[in-house]
Amino acid sequence: MTRAFVTGWPVKHSRSPLIHNHWLVQHGIDGSYEKQPCDPDDFTSFISGFQNEGFVGGNVTLPYKEQTFALADEVDKVAKAVGAANTVWHENGKLHATNTDVYGFLANLDQQVPGWGEPERQRRGALILGAGGASRAIIYGLLERGFENITIANRTVSKAQNLARAFGHKCVAAGISALSDECLEAALIVNTTSIGMGDGQRPVDPSLFAKDAIVNDIVYAPLVTPLLATAKEAGMLTIDGLGMLLHQAVPGFERWFGVRPEVTDELRGLVLTDLGESA
Ligand code: NAP
Question: Quick check: pTM over 0.70?
Answer without folding.
Answer: yes
